[in-house]
Amino acid sequence: MIHSTDDDSIHLIRLFIGVIYLCVGTDDEKTPAKKSKIVAYKPPADIAKHITKDEANRKLWDEAMTHASEGKQVFLAQIQEIFACICCQDLVHQPVTTECKHNFCKVSGRA
Is 94 exposed, middle or buried (0-12, 13-18, 19+ CB in 10 A)? Predict the structure, then answer.
């Protein structure tokens, strides 16, 4: 059986990941590196609600959340790695989850 994840949930999660990516990637490279305190990351309530609804990927979300204590940059990197399409290797778009818990883009699955 193949489960298609709620489009609204996925759209919101992809938007959330994009916003984090933009925020993390805006550091000025000319500024000397400073040791910064790692602050545990907690997703906003609306995103957390959609993560909770994604039962087909519960194990993957649990794995990703273990990295939230390492800060939002590490958390984002884990999300991008865990939710990469097994076909195109990009972040899943309109994801489909197989029974064996692999994710791929809906378009990539059309063969």
Answer: middle
Q: How far apart are CA 37 and CA 12, in angstroms?
A: 29
Superfamily name with CATH number, domain 3-23+40-105 = Zinc/RING finger domain, C3HC4 (zinc finger) (3.30.40.10)
pLDDT (tens digit, 9 = 90+) per residue, 7-49?
Answer: 666 666 766 666 555 555 545 555 566 777 889 999 999 999 9
Q: List all residues 6 or more positions away from 85 whose beta carbon is below 8 Å from its beta carbon.
A: 91, 92, 93, 95, 103, 104, 105, 108
Residue at 109: amino acid letter: G
Residue 85 has what DSSP assignment? -
Q: What is the pTM of this model?
A: 0.64
Residues 6+ apart with CB under 8 A from 21: 76
